[in-house]
């Protein structure tokens, strides 16, 4: 006779509340917040990593395919640089794109100390980071890396994420990455709670969520992968009302996905129109948007000590920002249903503004991104958050954006926004971020800090 079935609660008991307690805990039991920037800098100095730009001919194990011109690793693993053709009604373009079909793991270990959840964060070197070493998840690895396609060492703490006890998983969701530079790329974003003794290696520290949120106010300290994992975690909604009900929001968003006709096909890199390849760069003839270059990494202190790789380098820093308003006491941000060629679905929810302004300099004023000037020209007392963050340092070189949350008004961001835009609460955005392919990676960075923003309090 089989054992009687055991039922469990449909939602993890108190998970959001436990995370909220950690977010409210300004100092942890192991490391003072003020020590973290110095620790990261010490790790950078002691690591001694050297990043050099190199011509494509010096890439080890990488080459342009004779038939397509695609840039590939000889193992067939890691990623490729291919071409992409995107067609929409009234617009089409071609570009290089990173194709990396394997799903990586972005995982953070959580453990209670003195009744408060702490998170095991890593000081990790990435060649594209402007300052090389940033605060990263416990595990940040592609499948090629953790299956040791590079012949390197084991990924520390990986075992906790490959087969976790399901009832110990606090968050687990496949999230997209940059749709302008990746073709349908997804990573598994996880927070897994552990018991017992889990020693922190010298490159790791236990921090509360409150400490991490404070560090998110510093330029280039918390990396993109840590930001997206934390944004995917459940939060206690601070609001019970909104301009749109949850079902109304979903209906609007589903309508946005349905109305956009986006046709995408991969193509040989050598056939991409408007781009040229020389000895050290694949770039647009007009110099806009980004370029593909190559780098050599030495003394990395990673699973392998050194390697070479292609990497995408944007031509300038970006501006990423949410317009923020309070309606009848309830905070809202203005989200944009944004089309990007690399998305698996047609659109994802993006910040109000997400662009590199110089890319629009040659275009008529009517083609300038909506609301860009409202965010850039806001007075200092309206800026609730302003911090420079870099994007994924393993694939993008010196890719930085100024992340903003700016309090606006009816004159600049009306209650009835133009098509493609919608007011959502932080709680609604967090609810959607708990599911795949709803909230893009830039919006998730801002979502990670939205709970710390209050009207009338300027940026620190």
UniProtKB/TrEMBL annotation:
Residues 35-232, 248-450 form the dTDP-4-dehydro-6-deoxy-alpha-D-glucopyranose 2,3-dehydratase domain. One of its GO terms (molecular function) is lyase activity. Pfam families: Hexose_dehydrat. This is NDP-hexose 2,3-dehydratase.
């Amino acid at each position: 006779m089989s054992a009687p079935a055991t039922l469990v609660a449909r939602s993890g008991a108190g998970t959001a509340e436990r995370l909220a307690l950690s977010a409210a805990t300004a100092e942890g039991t192991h490391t003072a917040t003020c020590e973290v920037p110095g620790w990261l800098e010490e790790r950078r100095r002691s690591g001694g990593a050297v990043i050099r730009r190199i011509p494509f001919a010096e890439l080890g194990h990488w080459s342009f395919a004779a038939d397509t011109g695609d840039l590939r690793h000889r193992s067939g693993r890691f990623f490729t640089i291919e071409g992409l053709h995107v067609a929409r009604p009234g617009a089409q373009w071609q570009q290089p794109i990173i194709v990396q079909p394997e799903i990586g793991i972005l995982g953070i270990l959580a453990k209670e100390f003195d009744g408060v959840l702490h998170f095991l964060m890593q000081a990790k070197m990435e060649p594209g980071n402007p300052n090389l070493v940033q605060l990263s998840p416990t595990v940040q690895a592609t499948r090629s890396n953790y299956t040791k396609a590079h012949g390197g060492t084991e990924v520390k703490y990986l075992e906790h994420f490959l087969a976790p006890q399901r009832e110990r998983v606090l968050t687990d969701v496949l999230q997209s990455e940059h749709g302008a530079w990746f073709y349908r790329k997804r990573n598994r974003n996880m927070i897994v709670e552990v018991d017992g003794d889990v020693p922190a290696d010298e490159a790791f520290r236990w921090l509360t969520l409150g400490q991490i949120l404070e560090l998110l106010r510093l330029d280039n300290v918390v990396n993109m992968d840590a930001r997206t994992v934390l944004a995917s975690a459940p939060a206690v909604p601070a609001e019970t009302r909104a301009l749109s009900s949850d079902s109304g929001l979903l209906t609007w968003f589903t309508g946005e996905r349905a109305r956009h006709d986006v046709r995408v096909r991969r193509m040989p890199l050598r056939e991409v129109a408007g781009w040229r390849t020389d000895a050290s760069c694949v770039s647009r003839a007009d110099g806009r948007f980004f370029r593909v270059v190559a780098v050599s990494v030495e003394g990395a202190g990673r699973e392998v000590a050194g390697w070479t790789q292609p990497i995408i380098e944007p031509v300038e820093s970006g501006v990423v920002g949410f317009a923020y308003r309070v309606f009848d006491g309830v905070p809202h941000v203005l989200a944009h249903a944004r089309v990007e060629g690399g998305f698996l679905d047609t659109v994802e929810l993006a910040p109000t503004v997400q662009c590199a302004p110089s890319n629009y300099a040659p275009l008529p004023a009517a083609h300038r991104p909506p609301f860009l000037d409202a965010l850039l020209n806001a007075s200092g007392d309206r800026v609730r958050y302003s911090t420079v963050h870099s994007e994924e340092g393993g694939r993008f070189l010196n890719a930085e954006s100024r992340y903003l949350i700016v309090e606006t008004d009816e004159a600049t961001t009306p209650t009835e926004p133009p098509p493609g835009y919608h007011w959502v609460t932080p709680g609604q955005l967090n609810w959607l971020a708990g599911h795949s392919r709803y909230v893009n990676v830039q919006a998730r960075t801002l979502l990670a800090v939205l709970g710390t923003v209050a009207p009338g309090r300027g940026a620190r």
